[in-house]
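Hello Y.,

Per our agreement to keep a running log of every chain we model this quarter, I'm adding this entry. I've kept the format consistent with earlier entries: sequence first, then predicted structure.
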Amino acid sequence: MKYFDSHAHYYDERFSEEHEGGADALLSRLFSENVSYIINVGTRNETNLQAIAQAKRYDGMYTALGLHPTDLRYIDYGIEQALAELKSLLTDKSSKCVALGEIGLDYHYPDTDKERQREYFVRQMQLAEELSLPVVIHDRDAHGDVMEVIREFPGVKGVLHSFSGSCEMAEELISLGYLISFSGTLTFKNARRPKEVASVIPLSKILIETDAPYLAPHPNRGTLNHSGNLVFTNRELALIKGISEEECARITGENARRFFKIV
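Predicted structure for the entry above:
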């Protein structure tokens, strides 16, 4: 049984700090065991380049490249330059890029510059529309504003990663051509809302992910997350859907390959 990890960050320093041999040792093992594909997701142009360099070393690794709302603090130059740099990476065929992301809004922290986040989100949605790329969207404590921007771009399709919204939000997203991705939070005992959403939306509209090195599932919660832990998220989703783990892994993998246009 092979898994498709639709969202991870393998350039993160935690891998070199917490796993012997770093990310490469871990990835070599995972691809040889139970992982078929991984989308390595960048968060600013520095990490976009790191994600690309890693993806070139593995046949099963592809990239999503974007400017994450909480990483805007690292961008100390103008938005036009930042977007021009991003566009050059998105259009470089050697980058193995299959989506624009991770983009969106994050209102978790009290000192958030909401106007700047929205400007970058809107401009990257415009870029996705221009380049005919799907988007990978981050939404933390900003459901209403995220949906407002998404509705402005009916021609853009995407995925809401590590989904935390309501059933009504999920159903509207699906009607707009989006997919819903569940991370290890689906396995948490207090994850009432994700479990409810997973129970009501079609499996054909669901992806699974790790968000590695973050959000490790139960029973490994709080540890370094990696794509091998998809077994637990997949198991929980299969239980919710009343199907076998094999069928669940197969269908979510097919959904991801179709969405990211990976043959």
